[in-house]
Design goal:
By secondary structure, the chain is α/β, with parallel strands linked by helices. The protein folds into 3 domains: about 70 residues, no CATH class; about 80 residues, no CATH class; about 170 residues, Glycogen Phosphorylase B (Rossmann fold, 3-Layer(aba) Sandwich). Helix content is about 40%, strand content about 15%. The chain contains 12 helices and 11 strands. The strands form 3 sheets. A 6-stranded parallel sheet has the order 8-7-6-9-10-11, with helices on both faces. α6 packs across α9 and α7 packs across α12. The protein starts with a helix and ends with a helix.
Length: about 350
């Protein structure tokens, strides 16, 4: 969970202070998510007044942080071609940005606003090191993949505070075209020089430290990859960014694709087919014209740990029921509503290989 490591570090610091005998009273506010909070307190009974005063000071500091992160006023003279994405924590700094970007481009087209979509990133100065790296390697480079441009002149434009696909699904069902992402020419040229005419099957792994039970079954995917290569089908793995430079059981990997979203997209475009588990980069496949199988990898009994494990969440947030497909998906594109076991992967490939010639 994001923020969990920092929370543990803070609690351990104060636990060390308490064990030294330096803490007489503690009050704690704990936030699991914005809808799930708790508080507690313990210590000497005559410290309540001092604790209340300290909490007031803390409240003032948190309020200043909140104000600093808020977006500025909207400029209602801007049309739908100008949108703003705050990097202050109001909006997530993750792959949800791509869904939001697709929705923003559809809105621009629907309202007849001029091309191209202009995206202004605000509050960049509030980014930490890790988030800044993600911003520079994923968020900013995603904008030109839908034909947009990055410009500070769009700050003050629209920001729709919804980052899931349900509105895109509804628009698609009423006949609107869903934009597709496209790699830049320079990204495509780099990948062409790498593949030199070979059309591999790509396997994108999730190997993250947070929510590790969502990770790819690396053993199952390697077993499957051995099958493909034994039949003469080249395979290229794209490992999670943290493990991009680590070899994988003798298989070909493409480290640069793990760090550069344009190279990643160009690789997917020039491959025979692309295989995923539930992971942010898989959204590139949703909004592409290339064959894919995306194993949704629902984990039974874990809906309390991760909302997408709840079938009701899929309909409310994403606009489709478990078992359905995106309404804009092509015949060679499929969500596979199963875990990534070897047998399920093989079954998904048997279906896809007939279509991805």
């Amino acid at each position: 969970m994001l923020g969990n490591a920092e929370s543990i570090e803070l609690l351990e610091h104060w636990l060390r202070q308490a064990k030294k005998g330096h803490v007489a009273y503690v009050a704690v506010a704990a936030v699991e998510n914005p809808q799930r909070v708790a508080y507690d307190y313990a210590g000497a009974y005559d410290c309540e007044e001092a604790a209340q005063q300290t909490l007031k000071e803390l409240q003032q500091e948190l309020e200043q942080i909140y104000v600093a992160r808020r977006m500025g006023p909207r400029d209602f003279s801007f049309d739908a071609a100008c949108v703003e994405w705050p990097l202050s924590g109001i909006a997530p700094v993750n792959w949800d940005f791509l869904t939001w970007l697709i929705d923003a481009e559809m809105t621009r087209r629907r309202e007849g606003a001029p091309f191209p979509l202009r995206v202004g990133f605000s509050k960049e100065e509030l980014l930490g090191t890790e988030k800044r790296q993600f911003f520079n390697s994923v968020l900013r480079p995603l904008v030109p993949t839908i034909g947009g441009i990055v410009t500070p002149r769009a700050i003050g434009g629209r920001h729709k505070r919804f980052y899931m696909t349900s509105d895109i699904v509804v628009a698609s069902r009423r006949g609107e075209e869903v934009p597709q992402v496209k790699a830049t020419r320079s990204g495509s040229e780099v990948v062409t020089s790498y593949l030199h005419g070979v059309k591999p099957v790509t396997i994108t792994l999730r190997e993250a430290c947070h929510l590790p039970w969502r990770n790819s079954s690396v053993e199952a995917w390697c077993h499957f990859a051995h099958d493909l290569e034994a039949k003469g089908q080249p395979v290229v793995f794209v490992r999670d960014t943290a493990k991009a430079m680590v070899p994988l059981n003798g298989f070909a990997t493409f480290p640069r694709a793990a760090f550069d979203v344009d190279i990643r997209l160009a690789l997917y475009e020039q491959s025979r087919a692309n295989l995923f588990v539930s992971n942010g980069p898989g959204a590139l496949a949703w909004f592409s014209d290339r064959p894919y199988a995306y194993l949704v990898n629902l984990k039974s009994g874990l809906s309390d740990e991760w909302e997408p494990n709840d079938p009701e969440w899929w309909y409310g947030a994403m606009g489709i029921n478990v078992g359905e497909q995106w309404p804009w998906a092509q015949p060679d594109q499929q969500l596979v509503w199963k875990e990534d076991t070897y047998s399920n992967i093989s079954e998904a490939w048997e279906w896809l290989s007939e279509k991805a010639k």
